What does this fold into?
Amino acid sequence: MFKPTAIRLGFSLCIIFTGFLVQAQQTWLPREPSPAASVEQTVGISKVTVNYSRPSIKGREIWGNLVPYGWNVQGFGAGNSAPWRAGANENTVLHLSHPATIQGTLVPAGNYGLFFVINKDNSGEVILSKDYKSWGSFFYDPKQDQMRAKITVRDVPFSTERLDYSFDSVSKNMAELDLNWAKKQFPVKMEFAVDEIVMDNATELLKGETAFTPGNLNAAAAYALQNNIDTAQAMKWINRSIANAPTYNNLRIRAALLKKGGDSLASEKIMKTAMPLATEGELNAYGYQMLGENKFPQAIDAMKLMVQKFPESANAWDSLGEAYALSGDKKNAITSFKKSLSMNPPAPTKANSEKYMKQLGAM
It folds into this structure.
């Protein structure tokens, strides 16, 4: 004989499970109680994406009640002691486009179920599970853990009514993923080997069609130069660009690589070849770079070449005047500023020339 209690329990579980399936399938209908959301952050060229559902407080006691402290056995599913699903409905899913070091643990690229544990003293854990397709944490299996790490949950002075994820701290190599709900924040530090990822990506791309565009070779070499990584590979890239067609830009990068490698004479020789190929803007930028390094003769040479190539440019004469002024050559500075002012310069150029003329006592 069947017991009515068992029948009722089986019927209830069937309703619950059927409800899960229906809700999971009806992605084409609005989800009002805990709407779906997504947040994404780029670090270097890597992307971190979190897909989750957003429950509201609705006057409920969250911590220690709706979200129990510690690990808990769920009333349905696998019956394992489980963490919190870090949202509502189906698994909160974290996607990494590239490997990342999360709370000190290296995690391969891919999709992961994201879970948290919070304790009464604000100690906690973050868990990434390779099983990201299950519903909530009902079927959580510790054997599927990719990583588990300690975190410290923060008390914050403001309350977030509807749970959300954000990236509130971002730098070149790092982003902090924060779960915010009620007056708690769950921080997770994610770090990427950005330079290594960029260089590996560039190496692969520059084996194919991308390599036939000199600008791509220039950009990759410039990145390596600026970040002081694999300058030998950068030199190979820039030499391929120069072989296609010498330009001011690729010659400048080669000169900078030679200088970084300690060959200043070769660097200066290449720059002399590059300068006649430069645009007005490129000459202006190089001249000011030299001024920033207190290399006044080189700055003046660049500015003089600029006014020779672009004699009708008021800005070129203004820049030459500034180079002379900063080097202490008052006479040539005044002559250059007067030339600039005689050409009806744009307002910023005019203001700069007049400022120096007043400082030099010529106005």
Remarks:
- The CA atoms of residues 30 and 36 lie 9 Å apart.
- The longest strand covers residues 174-191.
- The chain has three domains: 31-192, 194-277, 282-363.
